[in-house]
Structure prediction request, 572 residues.
Amino acid sequence: MFKRKRKLQNYTHLAVAFHLPAFLTLTVITLGPLLYTLKISFYDYKISSSGSEDVFVGLKNYINMFHDMEFVNSMAKTFLFMLCAVVLEVILGVVLAMALNSITRFRKLFTSLTLIPMMVAPLIIGLMFSFFLNPQFGLYVWLVDTLHLPLPTVLTDSPVLAMIVVILMDVWEWSPYLGLVFLAGLQSISGEYYEAAKVDGASSAQIFQYVTLPLMKPVLVVGILLRAMETFKEFDKPFILTGGGPGNATEVIDIFTYRQAFVSFNFSYAAAICVVLFIILQLCGMMYQKFVMGGEEE
Amino acid sequence: MKKNKKRKLIGIYLFLIIFLILALLPYFWLVLTSFKTRVDAFAIPPKVFFKATLSNYREAFLDKGFLMNLKNSIIIMLATVGIGLGLGLPSAYAFSRFKTGKDSLLLNYLLGTRFTPVVVLALPLYLLMSKVHLLDSFVGIVIAHIAFNLPFVIWMMKGFFDAIPKEIDEAARVDGYSWFKVFLRIDVPLAKSGLAATAVFCAINSWNEFLMALILTGRHTATMPVGIPGLLTPQGTIWGQIAAVGTIITIPVLIFAVLVQKHMIAGMTMGAVK
Prediction:
């Protein structure tokens, strides 16, 4: 009876009052600027102008994108980076999660230490890799030399190797995170499923394939989608390690957009790219909401 | 059978130890380098034992002015956390207590902001701020950091408020408390461990952030990450000092990260994984 009454109470006024500060602020500082981006993407914007001289150019900035080989290149590089990084991170993450799940001693210590890479500023991770790979005094060169490993010593001069390093940096930073996300998923699987599978005589490979993987699907989807969106926004690590180079071998889309806007001052063109990026990520975001939040908000 | 199992367990521990060594080695090396003289830093084979020096720290923070970058980083971080929590807490509370038909729409709006790439927001903020002379000001960069942290505060705190039983509010209401008083005097103090975790997350986000700060700050407001590329000069990279600044950026993060690790995963998946 009491519960029913509470449900009937109208909270609209209170809700408005409590939400207003945050949503008013967000509208002014994010929605407003985003609409401004949309506007200037249709203009030929000059930063020195007072605004009245900007020429309306319609879809020109958008059409230019498709003729711009550098843009196409950086999009391709971004997808390549995303695909490789996410696949490696998911595989390593699953392995790490299963390893952490099967130990009891020191699990807490291992988990705490696993958190470290993802908390370090991405910029610093880029720097640490520069240190590590430095041809003059880097630990890596020394390791290759002393152990006579059949590996190249200078990595950031070759387009392919530089890309591999950029991917590995991300894998280094984020596999532990996926490991912990997946561990949370593993721990929510009831032990009864395993008991039942064992009674039925399933091998451990079969248990993994038919019990663990299907039950982990929700966390796997969360992890993959989140990482896919984050890798799409990669900037700091390659910016500091390779600067997008050699040439534009590791120029992912955020570095390309940054260059267009703040090095070449093509603000309108950069704005058009921003609109495209925004749409792509919102589509991914919708997918994320559908998979993850769907049904939760009832 | 038992022996087999033991062997397997040893293999797992071995894997984890190797994984962790790989995960922590670059960081360990950065810290070591920050205490090395120029000669030791370039020594082949690399030196693990050497005479430690603080000269890199002295040169970077006193001579190169990174003390100012440190101060800027702290100011921007504190302002972001303070304002972010001030604006976000009431909203998070409303999502938890005053449910309306528009809630899912508002939550999606927040999530949309969270999925926006930094560069997409940085571009218009730069252009608009150059018009109102907010470039190279604390106001400008704090606005940018709040834009990304506010949705995060609301999402995370909503979960913590949800965990507080509603019966407590009812009791306080019967005692004649206004809703605002219930929120401020009862539920916020009850959510304080979640509040601390949220504050730490925001602080780390702001402290580590590079791209916005690179674009919106200038000579007077540059944060520590923004100062680092300045040490990568064409005349040569001053690795020792970079390592010193890198160490100072990272140590507080590690300390705080250990304090809030319980809430870590929930925070980083926007509550999708508890």
About this structure: The domain at 68-297 of chain A is CATH 1.10.3720.10 (MetI-like fold).
